[in-house]
Write a structure and sequence with these properties.
By secondary structure, this protein is an alpha/beta fold. The protein folds into two domains: about 5-260 and about 465-480, Aldehyde Dehydrogenase, Chain A, domain 1 (3-Layer(aba) Sandwich), CATH 3.40.605.10; about 265-415 and about 420-450, Aldehyde Dehydrogenase, Chain A, domain 2, CATH 3.40.309.10. It contains 15 helices and 22 strands. Bound molecules: adenosine-5'-diphosphate.
Length: about 500
């Protein structure tokens, strides 16, 4: 249990924009409401930034860039480490805040504090490991120097499903690399980012290094930032449709981009798999965040000889899940983010059923207040069903069967997305083959969750460009500079 009350916590969260190290009202004078998806009630009203505010944030980030780039890597790293330590102290508050504005069960919100915090710790360590190379050119007439410099002011646009981790996964590498930032959180869950900016301020963040713009007009407010010649980088996590729009805008300004977009993860269970482990992995891969993750298993592709047993046993576990407000003890299925998300999940299930699929459990919205959908298992889904093509982003397991490895791979790759795949098999050689044949940027081999701050997160195909975390993550915010000097002995 957290010690702070909901009302006290919400009162501590800033309700204004964070620009140039100051908490300021929107020049528009407008405000925007934030809701609790488990009740539909307004929990806080915050500043709604205008285009003019976007300009002020851009000015602040540009003005702070040179000094931040010149700040010693050790100092940048220690700021992040200090933020990590403060986050541990405030872990309960951040967990509760995420549960309130996003709906995920408190235990999962605590897990996100751990995961999100690791980006601060990881990049505090990476800040001092930005290396280069020096050596003779092949002709022996000169020396080649390769070094890495901060890209420059970076615009970070984050989604609502992981309010803390998506912010730290972008802010931490940017700051470690020496880039200043403007972050625009999702309009549905802006409070965690505001409270995190307060934490950074408490950790000693210099003015203008992180600026937060909350707005109900994402498109209008983002466009002038993206087209500003002082901006050098755009990092986005969200839907592929919006990513494509942003890539077009970014091309006009020839921006460096990182795009973490949609997913349609296959979860393949072979007949030689340890079914107990596969079912445990399936529960994690599907129900973390109530299925609202781009890494969520979207299609369970199960060998025909074990498909029925897998479906039956998984259904037992799903039936035992407990729906409710994320703050209540024992709840494992919170609300979806809003009624639109419930409508979408339900439409996909009904389409599958209309084409002959069978509902093993669930399959309906929960009546009453809040945006709840029953945890659901649908089997025998036939090819062509929309649920196999689109991201469900809800607590719905979709099972199809396959005959042999080639069939499994063909079905798994039959999607425009390529973020992550999950494979359960005891056959090592098969596992190794699938590493190369599955078209995804990440793979869980006998595990149901892959996310880790020390690993490169990202996808191929329509799932995106670039990697966040790992050794790769900081390079998304670094430019490579090459210098040639004459042979010093000539
Ligand atoms: P989701 O489907 O997860 O809601 P979106 O792609 O719609 O994802 O949104 C992800 C983030 O992108 C949010 O912060 C949202 O406000 C922002 N966003 C949506 N459309 C635009 C746009 N045209 N320009 C800039 N940001 C946008």
């Amino acid at each position: 249990m957290t010690s702070i009350s909901e009302a006290d916590l919400l009162a501590k969260v800033p309700d204004s924009l964070f620009i140039g190290g100051e908490w300021v009202a929107s020049t528009s004078g407008r405000s925007v409401d934030v809701h609790d998806p488990s009740t539909g009630l307004v929990i806080k009203t915050i500043a709604d930034a205008s285009v003019a505010d976007a300009g002020l944030a851009m000015d602040a980030a540009a003005d702070a860039q040179a000094a931040w780039a010149a700040t010693a890597p050790r100092v940048r790293g220690e700021l992040l480490r200090g933020a990590f330590d403060l986050l541990q102290e405030r872990a309960d508050e951040f967990a509760l805040l995420m549960t309130l504005e996003m709906g995920k069960p408190l235990a999962e919100a605590r897990g996100e504090v751990t995961y999100g915090g690791e980006f601060l710790r990881w990049f505090s360590e990476e800040a001092v490991r930005i290396s280069g190379r020096y050596g003779a050119n092949p002709e022996g007439t000169g020396r080649m120097i390769v070094t890495h410099l901060p890209v420059g002011p970076s615009f970070l646009i984050t989604p609502w499903n992981f309010p803390l981790a998506m912010a730290t996964r972008k802010i931490a590498p940017a700051l470690a690399a020496g880039c200043t930032t403007i972050i625009k959180p999702a309009e549905l869950t802006p409070l965690t980012t505001l409270y995190f900016a307060r934490l950074l301020e408490d950790a000693g963040l210099p003015k203008g290094v992180v600026n937060v713009v909350t707005t109900s007009e994402s498109k209008e407010v983002s466009a002038p930032i993206i087209s500003d010649r002082r901006l050098r980088k755009l990092s986005f996590t969200g839907s592929t449709a919006v990513g494509q729009i942003l890539l077009k805008q970014a091309s006009e300004n020839v921006l460096r981009t990182s795009m973490e977009l949609g997913g349609n993860a296959p979860f393949i269970v072979f007949d030689d798999a340890d079914l107990d482990k596969a079912i445990d992995g399936a529960m994690l891969a599907k129900f973390r965040n109530v299925g609202q993750a781009c890494t969520a298993a979207n299609r369970f592709i199960v060998h025909e000889s074990v498909a029925e047993e897998f479906g039956t046993r998984l259904t037992e576990k799903v039936k035992a899940m407990s729906i409710g407000r994320g703050t209540e003890a024992g709840v494992t299925v919170g609300p979806l983010i809003n009624d639109g998300a419930v409508d979408k999940a339900d439409a996909l299930v009904q389409d599958a059923v209309g084409r002959g699929a069978t509902i093993l459990t669930g399959g309906a919205r929960v009546s009453g207040e809040g945006s709840f959908y029953e945890p659901t298992v649908v089997s025998g889904v036939i090819a062509g069903s929309a649920i196999l093509r689109e991201e469900i982003f809800g607590p719905v397991v979709t099972i199809i069967s396959f005959t042999d490895e080639a069939d499994a791979v063909a079905k798994a790759n039959d999607t425009e997305y390529g973020l992550v795949s999950y494979v359960f098999t005891r056959d090592l050689a098969r596992g190794q083959r699938l590493i190369e044949t599955l078209q995804t940027g990440m793979m869980g081999l006998n595990v149901g969750v892959v996310s880790n701050a020390a690993a490169p997160f990202g996808g191929v195909k329509q799932s995106g460009i670039g990697r966040e975390g790992g050794l790769e993550g900081i390079h998304e915010y670094l430019e490579t500079k090459y210098v040639l000097t004459p042979d010093p002995f000539l």
